[in-house]
């Protein structure tokens, strides 16, 4: 079989958490590794029931974990882009689709959670098995976009219901009326903040004893399970409404594989470019936060393909705003790309 991806990574050994260089090959649903590419005997890891997660919130050393029912591998890449490429390739094995970096589009990993390992200061519950996460600080995996929580053993069984990006990802939840389609709420169960109040009956909701009650990922409204059906079904998109492209507006793909947005829903959407290397790797936190606030399809990492992809998605809008989080170089890079595509009449840059 041909390799989907291969290359060198650091692998953590069991003794005193030391790292050793190993050569990895991903073929089919198996990951092989050995001392170098010319080795005759390779160790193998079966990925048919595995999940992949970033190692921590800050993740300064670009490490990630492969969790299988029988073992856990901690690996470390040279830079963030290399780590993300490996994680995407490993995830594609789970989606049972051939993965090609060149053909990447928003649809490919639609609905899949982006895990990272973290701890929580208060009791937190797994959205898969509904049991509490173990340890005093509740260790487990959290999705960086939708905050779905899971035990490391449960992550592989999590439903692919991460924050929607396009019309296709909404599926059967879509609301259709005489005016066309409307944006429904996307509810996530449990793990509500301490001060949570129900939008229907104005009483306290959520619990630290079990997984209960609901929160919308878009407008952040919280409701009791009993009150959920009484709440208005159309989502108003919350405080960031002006800046958000709702998933119902991203519905068709151009012949060259780029999404095309319908403008009727969007006032003046915000396109966000973050340089994940800027500010001592603080950029990664910004990427996560913006994906939680906006449609994940509006947020781009400049270290992952540059500004061209994002500007192509937005070029049909009459007016839009761009936010660049990075240094002078990042801003210059985006400005020169705007000049190339001749978009300076329709966008403002901050």
What does this structure look like?
- This protein is an alpha+beta fold.
- It has three domains: 5-157, PH-domain like; 167-230, Wheat Germ Agglutinin (Isolectin 2), domain 1 (2-Layer Sandwich), CATH 3.30.60; 247-349, Rossmann fold (3-Layer(aba) Sandwich), CATH 3.40.50.
- The chain is built from six helices and 21 strands.
- It has helices at 80-94, 167-170, 278-281, 283-293, 308-314, 328-341, and strands spanning 5-12, 19-27, 30-34, 43-46, 51-54, 63-67, 72-76, 115-119, 139-143, 149-150, 175-177, 180-182, 187-189, 214-216, 222-223, 250-253, 259-261, 270-274, 299-301, 320-325, 347-349.
- The strands form five sheets. It has a ten-stranded mixed sheet, with helices on one face. A four-stranded parallel sheet has the order 19-18-20-21, with helices on both faces. Strands 13-14-15 form a three-stranded antiparallel sheet, with no helix packed on it.
- The model is unreliable at 98-107 (pLDDT under 50).
- Pathway: Glycerolipid metabolism; Lipid metabolism; glycerolipid metabolism.
- Its EC number is 2.7.1.107.
- This is diacylglycerol kinase (ATP).
- InterPro entries: ATP-NAD_kinase_N, C1-like_sf, C1_DGKeta_rpt2, DGK, Diacylglycerol_kinase_cat_dom, NAD/diacylglycerol_kinase_sf, PH-like_dom_sf, PH_domain.
């Amino acid at each position: 079989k041909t390799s989907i991806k291969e290359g060198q990574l650091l692998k953590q050994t069991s003794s005193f958490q030391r790292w050793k260089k190993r050569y990895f090959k991903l073929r089919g649903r198996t990951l092989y590794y050995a001392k170098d590419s010319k080795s005759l005997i390779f160790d193998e890891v079966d990925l048919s029931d595995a999940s992949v997660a970033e190692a921590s919130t800050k993740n300064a050393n670009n490490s990630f974990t492969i969790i299988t029912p029988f073992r856990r591998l901690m690996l470390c890449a040279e830079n963030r882009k290399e780590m993300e490429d490996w994680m995407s390739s490993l995830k594609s094995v789970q989606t049972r689709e051939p993965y090609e970096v060149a053909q990447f589009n928003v649809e490919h990993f639609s609905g899949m959670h982006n895990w990272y390992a973290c701890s929580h200061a208060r009791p937190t519950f797994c959205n898969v098995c509904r049991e509490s996460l173990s340890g005093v600080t509740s260790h487990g995996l959290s999705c960086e976009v939708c905050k779905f929580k899971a035990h490391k053993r449960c992550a592989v069984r999590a439903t692919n219901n991460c924050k929607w990006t396009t019309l296709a990802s909404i599926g059967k939840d879509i609301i259709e009326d005489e005016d066309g389609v409307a944006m429904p709420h996307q509810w996530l169960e449990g793990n509500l903040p301490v001060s949570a109040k129900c939008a229907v009956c104005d009483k306290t909701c959520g619990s630290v004893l079990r997984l209960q009650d609901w929160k919308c990922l878009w407008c952040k409204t919280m409701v009791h399970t009993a009150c959920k059906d009484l709440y208005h079904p159309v989502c108003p998109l919350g405080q960031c409404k002006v800046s958000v492209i709702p998933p119902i507006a991203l519905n068709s793909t151009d012949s060259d594989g780029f999404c095309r947005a319908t403008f009727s829903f969007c006032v003046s959407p915000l396109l966000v470019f973050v340089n994940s290397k800027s500010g001592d790797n603080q950029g990664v936190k910004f990427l996560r936060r913006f994906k939680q606030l906006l449609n994940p399809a509006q947020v781009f990492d400049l270290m992952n393909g540059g500004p061209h992809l994002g500007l192509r998605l937005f070029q049909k809008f009459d007016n839009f705003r761009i936010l660049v989080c990075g240094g002078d170089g990042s801003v210059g890079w985006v400005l020169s790309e705007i000049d190339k595509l001749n978009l300076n009449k329709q966008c403002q840059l901050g």
